[in-house]
């Protein structure tokens, strides 16, 4: 590193916190700005893939997250009426011992936030940043017209609703996707479920129900599951108007084993309505500005790559700044290092999502009768395993990371799995 930079990071989510750790450890003067009065996680559960886990390992936080999450070896989906398997992805289809780690978002946030606080990194809360003035250095503007800075670099980690990405070299806004989902974090009820698998049930492509074991939100906490039900956000009000009991009966008709989870839901207030959009910035940077995570690229969670992509962005930006003393050069290197991986998975997500979340009757027919069969024939199982792991396109070499030997790493969990076929 040629000199110590003054860097502002907008957003105290996983992307912003991971970036803060990397850049602070590289010797830069880092300030994190968060619009909420108290930084906190948003959402239910997610799967940390080998990509995201590699970044956490590089940050020295792998052991901390392993003790909280639930090891995932398999993604399994079945038709709700016939029970036929229409999705079966196994990480061990490829050698190397890879696995996913399902976690509560609060667990991931907590591990990163505690590390940031322990490092003494400044976090300023209650600051809603809406504008950027860039010249020789950059100044940030909040909703009250107050400024902050100057900074040598601003990192936009404010997510899919970013107000700063409009300052990118080629701005773009997400295109809303038709389907979203109700999500809830509930107590884990294991009977009939596999604690090492994401299990899903489908009714054509317009209904997808999922149960994901997500470990504990905090050390010593209750084991939890993320429960989700796909629907159009435009239909959410009508679903609520028909009443909670009517919705539960619909879920039970499609997947009776979910009764122990539905019994924990007493109100629609326990369900969070998630809305999704799709966009990919051609250049995730502007003058004195780097854009990472969902602010730079967002899509359906079908392939489960969102948080992992954000963590890779954080590592890539840090590596680019380390290798290039000039900020402008570093931003170009950062964008180039992530371009192929990001665009590949954005395209794959856009291609696969309609098979699982759409109004189509033809696509689920193809999925159930052709895709499920083809997925059993090599090399399809290996390709699917790489796709889910996030490694179909190598994301590591260009950003200076080395993937751990997963055969030597095991989550600190002892559980008995229930076989689901």
What keyword list fits this structure?
26% strand, disordered C terminus, FAD/NAD(P)-binding domain, Glutamate synthase
Polypeptide structure, described:
With 421 residues, the chain is α+β, with helices and mostly antiparallel strands. It has helices at 14-25, 50-58, 62-66, 105-118, 236-242, 244-254, 259-262, 306-323, 327-356, 362-374, 380-389, and strands at residues 6-10, 29-34, 45-48, 70-72, 74-79, 85-90, 100-104, 122-125, 129-134, 138-142, 147-151, 153-156, 175-176, 180-187, 197-203, 207-216, 223-231, 272-274, 277-280, 285-286, 289-291, 297-298. The protein has one domain (6-176, 276-408): FAD/NAD(P)-binding domain (3-Layer(bba) Sandwich), CATH 3.50.50.60. It is built from eleven helices and 22 strands. A seven-stranded mixed beta sheet has the order 6-5-15-16-17-14-18. Strands 8-2-1-12-21-20 form a six-stranded mixed beta sheet, with helices on one face. A hairpin with a 2-residue loop joins β20 and β21. α2 (50-58) crosses α8. The termini are far apart.
């Amino acid at each position: 590193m040629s000199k110590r930079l003054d860097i502002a990071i907008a957003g105290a989510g996983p992307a912003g916190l991971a970036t803060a750790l990397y850049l602070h450890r590289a010797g830069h003067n880092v300030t994190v700005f968060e619009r909420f009065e108290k930084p906190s996680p948003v959402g239910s559960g997610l799967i940390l893939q080998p990509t995201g886990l590699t970044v956490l390992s590089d940050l020295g936080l792998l052991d901390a997250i392993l003790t909280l999450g639930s090891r995932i070896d398999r993604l399994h989906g079945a038709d709700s009426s016939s029970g036929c398997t229409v999705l079966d992805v196994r990480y061990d289809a490829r050698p190397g011992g890879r696995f996913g780690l399902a976690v509560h978002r609060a667990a991931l946030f907590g591990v990163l936030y505690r590390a940031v606080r322990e490092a003494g990194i400044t976090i300023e809360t209650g600051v809603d940043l809406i504008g950027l003035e860039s010249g020789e250095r950059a100044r940030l503007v909040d909703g009250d017209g107050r400024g902050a800075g100057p900074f040598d670099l601003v990192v936009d980690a404010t997510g899919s609703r970013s107000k700063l990405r409009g300052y990118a070299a080629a701005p773009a806004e997400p295109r809303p996707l038709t389907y979203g989902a109700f999500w809830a974090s509930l107590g884990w009820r294991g009977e009939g479920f596999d604690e090492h698998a994401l299990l899903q049930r489908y009714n054509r492509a317009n209904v997808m129900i999922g149960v994901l074991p997500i470990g504990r939100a905090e050390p010593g906490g209750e084991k939890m599951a993320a429960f989700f039900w796909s629907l159009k956000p435009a239909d959410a009000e009508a679903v609520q108007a028909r009443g909670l009991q009517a919705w539960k009966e619909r879920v039970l008709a499609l997947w009776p084993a979910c009764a122990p989870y539905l019994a924990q839901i007493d109100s629609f207030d326990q369900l969070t309505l998630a809305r999704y959009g799709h966009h990919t910035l051609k250049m995730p940077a502007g003058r004195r500005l780097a854009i990472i995570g969902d602010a730079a690229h967002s899509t359906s969670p079908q392939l489960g790559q969102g948080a992992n992509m954000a963590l890779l962005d954080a590592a890539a930006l840090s590596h680019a700044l380390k290798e290039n003393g000039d900020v402008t050069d570093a931003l170009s290197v950062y964008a180039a290092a992530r371009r192929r991986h990001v665009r590949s998975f954005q395209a794959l997500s856009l291609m696969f999502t309609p098979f699982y979340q759409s109004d189509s009757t033809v696509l689920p027919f193809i999925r159930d009768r052709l895709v499920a069969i083809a997925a059993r024939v090599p090399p399809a199982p290996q390709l699917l395993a790489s796709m889910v792991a996030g490694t179909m396109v190598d994301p590591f070499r260009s950003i200076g990371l080395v993937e751990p030997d997963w055969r030597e790493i095991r989550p600190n969990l002892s559980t008995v799995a229930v076989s689901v076929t």
